[in-house]
Amino acid sequence: MSSERIALAVDLGGTNLRTGAVTRNGDVICSRRAPTPAREPWERTVDVIAEHVASLRSEIAQSGIEIAGIGIGAPGPLDVRTGIVFSSPNFPLWFNVPLASAVGERTGLPVRVENDADAAALAEARWGSGAGVTDFIYLTIGTGLGSSLIINGRAWHGVSGIAAEAGHITIEAQGRLCGCGNTGCWESYVSGWAIVQRTKELLSDTGRSPQWSRGALEPHIVADAALAGDTLAQRVYQETGRYLGIGIASLVNLLNPGLIVIGGGVSAAGHLLLDPARDELHRRAFSTQAQAVRIERAALKEPGLIGAAAIVYSDL
Question: pTM value?
Answer without folding.
Answer: 0.85
